[in-house]
Amino acid sequence: MFPTEPAAVNNGFGALLKNRGFILLWIGQLVSQLADKVFFLMLVDLVVDKNSSYLPPLGVAKESMYSILMVAFTIPAVLFGSAGGVFVDRLPKKLIMVGSDILRGLLTIGLAFLPRDFYILFLITFGVSSVTQFFAPAEQAAIPLLVRRENLIAANALFTSTMMSALIVGFLLGDPLLSLAETGMAKEYGRELVVALLYMLSAVMMLPIHFRDKKSPSEVLSDRIDLWADFKEGLRYLKKNRLVLNAMLQITVLYCVFAALMVLALPLAEKFGLQGKQSGRFIAAVGIGIVIGAGILGHWADKTHHKPLPLMGFLGMALILALVPFTNTQVIALGFCILLGVSGSLIGVPMQTLIQQQTPLIMHGKVFGFQNHAVNIALSAPLAITGWLNQEFGLRTVLIAMSLIVAIVGVWAWQNTRRVLQDVI
Questions:
Q1: pTM of the model
Q2: Domain 13-424 CATH class label
Q3: Residue 249 CA to chain centroid, in angstroms?
Q4: Quick one: how far is CA 18 from the chain centroid?
Q5: Distance between CA 318 and CA 400 in Å, rounded?
Q6: Secondary structure letter of residue 139 according to DSSP
Q7: Within a 10 A sphere around the Cβ of 405, how many other Cβ atoms?
Q8: Backbone dihedral region for residue 211 (phi beyond 0: left; psi -120 to 50: alpha; all else: beta)
Q9: Which site from 89, 239, 348, 410 is most exposed, i.e. has the minimal number of CB atoms within 10 Å?
């Protein structure tokens, strides 16, 4: 029932490791992801540290500075998520990714030489987040240019696992790395220099990649970019291709659940008598589960082709969400979080592969731009309301309600996909 092309004989990660261009893209993505996480921690360090030279503006409490920066990081994701995809279809993928890394590196190092003013920090944060909206869809559109169609599920599994690994490693090593950067001769600008070097390293790793871009530089320069027309063209395509739209909706729901869990990790930690800063272990456990699930899918993709993977993933997540509030042991709760991540990978990896396989190359940027936009909104909305729901109704009620919603969405998406495939047949 899994509507993607079956894997070839040379499936799994072995074929990918022989693909030099893909390996360079993969390493570049990993370094860029690490830079994003360390940049995020650097912002926290710059405004939360008692000895910080960034002072709050008039009328703004010091405790609110971090929240304001998070707004600066979120707004571009909502404003430019789809626009970035339009440029991806018009410009060379390598130009966008390498250029994005260089721009983010320059903006970050600029903090070291600009006045220590909170408004400047706000603008730099806004700028870095805005540039990231162009990097993300270009990265997704680049994978099918480097990998055979039958190996896409293994490629997406590897990218998903490394993305979560970067999340875990970035938050674990980011703090000691920034602390180390403050020592020695670069004490005043060490943190900014480390983040900038990571972005630049990502750009250097991707420079040797040769993409099969069909347009010549002269054609690129002569193209007229009409954002509104391209935006409407992308909408028309998604309305027409219900299989891709259905896959995108499933990925969006998945990220909604993960965003809600980031908020609920704090009351879950309190349930087991842990401190607030220890809530990250539950998020890390979910990340470990995603890595495990992605690894299984990537290595045994040929054996999972005919399985209803997304349905299994949604029902597995629903069952785990219903069981977690009745768990009284931290170890069991962490185990459930790992299984939750494994279930999530059964949704994310195959649905991302489906989108790449079913979307023509000329529409990749627009479609991945829409996906990036939808995911950003999916991450923002639960962050805004989940905390309030927990205060009003309690952790157990919220998790059980999430369980029911996830189960309903999973069954609906499975039935909808079956109807679409029957119509095609």
A1: 0.72
A2: mainly alpha
A3: 15
A4: 26
A5: 8
A6: H
A7: 16
A8: beta
A9: 239
Asked if 334 and 282 touch (Cβ cutoff 8 Å), the reply is yes
The tokens for 72 are 């600066």
Burial string for 251-273 (b: 16+ CB within 10 Å, else e) reads: bbbbbbbbbbbbbbbbbbbebbe
Amino acid at 326: F
Q: Are 32 and 202 in contact (CB under 8 A)?
A: yes
> 236 burial class (0-12, 13-18, 19+ CB within 10 angstroms)?
exposed
Q: Show the tokens assigned to 220.
A: 């690129």
**What's the rounded Cα separation, in Å, for the pair 296 and 191?**
37
Rounded CA gap, 337 and 323, in Å?
11
pLDDT in tens, 266-285: 788 888 887 655 676 787 78
Query: How far apart, in whole angstroms, are the C-alpha atoms of residue 138 and residue 297?
Result: 24
And the tokens for 37?
A: 């996480």
Give CA–CA dist 417/421, Å, rounded. Answer: 6
State how far Cα 267 lies from the chain centre: 24
11 sits in which H/E element = none
Q: Taken in order 205, 210, 212, 215, is the CA torsion positive or negative?
A: positive
What is the per-residue pLDDT across 167-203, written as a single tens digit (0 to 9) for each? 667 666 777 777 777 775 456 778 888 899 999 999 9
- Report residue 23 as tokens: 């390996």
Cα–Cα distance for residue pair 398/375, rounded to 1 Å: 21
Task: Read off the tokens for 401.
Answer: 């309600």
- Residues 264 and 390: beta-carbon distance below 8 Å: yes
Tell me which residue of 287, 329, 7, 331 sits closest to 147, measured CA to CA: 7
Select the more confidently predicted residue: 213 or 158. 158
The residue with tokens 């990790």 is 265
What's the token pair of residue 277? 């800063």
The residue behind tokens 């570049």 is: 28
Burial of 174 (0-12, 13-18, 19+ CB in 10 A): buried
Rg (CA), the chain: 22
Asked if pLDDT for residue 48 goes beyond 80, the answer is: no
What is the spatial distance between Cα 365 and Cα 362, in angstroms, rounded to a whole number? Answer: 7
